[in-house]
Amino acid sequence: MSLNKYVVGLTGGIASGKTTVANLFAEYGIDLVDADIIAREVVSIGSDGLKAIEQHFGQSLLLTDGSLDRSALRAQVFDNPQQRLWLNNLLHPMIRQKMLDQVQASTSSYVIMVVPLLFENHLDSLVDTTLVVDIAPELQISRTMQRDGVSKQQVEHILASQMTREQRLAKADNIIDNQGEYELLRSQVLRLHQQYLQHAADLETNVND
């Protein structure tokens, strides 16, 4: 890490509770850098990302208000590896740069970078430590069906496109178990928060030496 800032990469499978965990860290005054929010910003109206997509795919991918029709874009790249590669090559560097800019601008002791596909997109190279929010696949399926109103088959399809639970846990430096009570979750976050504060202080000492 070239950034003089201690960065925690927070990830987990769909419906694992990443946002809930991130918000608990935010309660301690820790800045969050959210890849999903940034991914929307780089294709917002007037952005270079949206202009490039319009040039490449045509105006049919825009809604009447000029914003990106996400479902139309998904349909374009879903079964087309070449188009998906083009899109990833366009957006990933933009997202990565914006995330780094936000980390650099952060004023909290350390930063939580929330990235759903942290390992899949090799963004773990940008962080000092990785934190995985873990729940059982059965729970992921039921929570996603309930939250998004989708079928079991659709959720299983999403799970199949992500890293397996075993692969994710094998890569994790820290793990939060989000299958129990909320208070249990809160106590795990507090323990890690204190740990990260210490690591951040150590990093600062080394930088200043």
UniProtKB/TrEMBL annotation:
This protein's pathway: Cofactor biosynthesis; coenzyme A biosynthesis; CoA from (R)-pantothenate: step 5/5
Superkingdom of the organism of origin: Bacteria
CDD domains registered for this protein in UniProt: DPCK
Primary localisation category: cytoplasm
Enzyme class: transferase
Protein EC: 2.7.1.24
HAMAP family named among the record's database cross-references: Dephospho_CoA_kinase (MF_00376)
Family membership noted in the UniProt record: Belongs to the CoaE family.
PANTHER family attached to this UniProt entry: BIFUNCTIONAL COENZYME A SYNTHASE-RELATED, DEPHOSPHO-COA KINASE-RELATED
NCBIfam families: dephospho-CoA kinase
Annotated protein name in UniProt: Dephospho-CoA kinase
Species this protein is from: Shewanella frigidimarina (strain NCIMB 400)
Organism lineage: Bacteria, Pseudomonadati, Pseudomonadota, Gammaproteobacteria, Alteromonadales
Gene name, Swiss-Prot/TrEMBL: coaE
